[in-house]
Design brief:
Number of strands: 10
Helix content: 25-40%
Shape: globular
Order of helices and strands: HHEHHEHEHEEEHEHEHEEHHHHHH
Distance between the termini: 23 Å
Mean pLDDT: 89
Low-confidence stretches: 1-40
Strand content: 5-15%
Strand order of the largest sheet: 2-1-3-10-4
Length: about 350
């Protein structure tokens, strides 16, 4: 596998792309070579491209494990990881510029409804890792309802605001607050008093805040009535899956092996992730290990289903949340009048 890493810091807004992202509809601007036999170091293997959604982090750990332990080689694949750029991974996949990429449940539900060619083929997290957060030393905030009338640090997406509002309302509050779009790090905005609360990711940012000595007080959306979702996943396009069924099956199964390893041996998997991305993660050893352990304990697997498999109830329930909230539009931007068949948006066919 050819690694293309970069040193951009994982920020709050980008991390949220893995939890409740809205994919923008448009044509991809980053070109990748056409799929085919690799002429590189794995001559004779089939080349597959994989698009990151941000700088390498523990959401991607199973992909890097599959590379470092040779699972892709064993599957006859030469996988190239494409670096994050200005074009979302979902757009690259839909446009055929990448074969696979990172894309969570809500991303697929919103983007495919709006016309992108996307299919969820693997679910990295079996439940939502997003949280509503404020500073832990706020004496005036003990529960979400206390956030009524305060200032929310958002990211320009109505869905993020809706998650905050629904969590507050689920605790008996009115869900009324002022919103500003963050232009700096969330902790800086919180500590400076420019905002009172925002959204965060339990498996990365919350851990970083705790390690830095300024932990967040966090509220899980699902604890206050927001439907569950499988917030991080891997997507492909129907066009690629139909044209390359064997390669697709080989890729998804190698990735599943990688995430299974990470679930069973999180510290070893963390070391493999860091070794593959020394420039990006070399100084984040403690965070990467803590994140890998939390993912292994609470997110990568479920006793109710095979690793990476669909939770149909979550897709139906969160899809209804999106539909009822008016977040779903067709390719012309018109609001949907009928819910899609969510079973067409995700598949387990390539897992086994």
């Amino acid at each position: 596998m050819r690694h293309h890493t970069h040193t951009r810091t994982l920020t709050r807004a980008a991390a949220l792309l893995s939890t409740a992202a809205i994919a923008l509809v448009g044509c991809a601007s980053t070109a990748a070579a056409p799929n085919g036999a690799s002429a590189g170091e794995n001559a004779g293997s089939t080349r597959v491209t994989f698009a990151l959604d941000w700088a390498p982090n523990t959401n991607h750990i199973g992909v890097y494990v599959a590379d470092e332990l040779g699972y892709f080689d064993e599957a006859g694949l030469d996988v190239e990881i494409l670096p994050y750029g200005s074009t979302p991974a979902t757009q690259l996949v839909s446009a055929g510029e990448a074969d696979f990429g990172i894309g969570g449940q809500s991303t697929v539900q919103v983007a495919r409804t709006a016309g992108l060619d996307l299919v969820s083929v693997y679910r990295v997290t079996q439940r939502d890792s997003g949280r509503l957060v404020t500073l832990a030393d706020r004496a005036d905030v003990d529960r979400p309802a206390d956030l009524d009338g305060m200032t929310f640090g958002g990211f320009g997406s109505p869905l993020y605001s809706a998650l905050a509002r629904a969590t507050i309302e689920g605790d008996g509050g009115e869900g009324s607050f002022e919103e500003v779009v963050l232009d700096t790090g969330a902790y800086e905005a919180l500590s400076q008093g420019r905002i009172d609360f925002t959204l965060s990711v339990a498996t990365w940012e919350n851990l970083q805040a705790e390690l830095d000595g300024h932990p967040y007080r966090e509220f899980g959306y699902q604890d206050f009535g927001v439907p569950e979702q499988q917030s991080t996943g891997i997507v492909s396009s129907e066009a690629y899956l139909e044209a390359h069924p064997e390669e697709s099956r080989a890729f998804v199964q190698a990735v599943a092996r990688g995430y299974a390893y990470a679930a069973e041996q999180p510290d070893a998997a963390a070391e493999l992730l860091i070794a593959a991305n020394p420039d990006t993660l070399g100084a984040a050893d403690e965070l990467v290990h803590a994140s890998a352990r939390l993912l292994a304990e609470d997110y990568l697997t479920s006793p109710e289903r095979e690793i990476g498999a669909i939770d149909p109830e979550a897709w139906d329930a969160f899809g209804a949340f999106l539909f009822d909230g008016g977040f779903l539009t067709d390719a012309e931007g018109r609001p949907l009048t009928e819910q899609p068949d969510w079973s067409e948006y995700a598949t387990d066919a390539y897992l086994g």
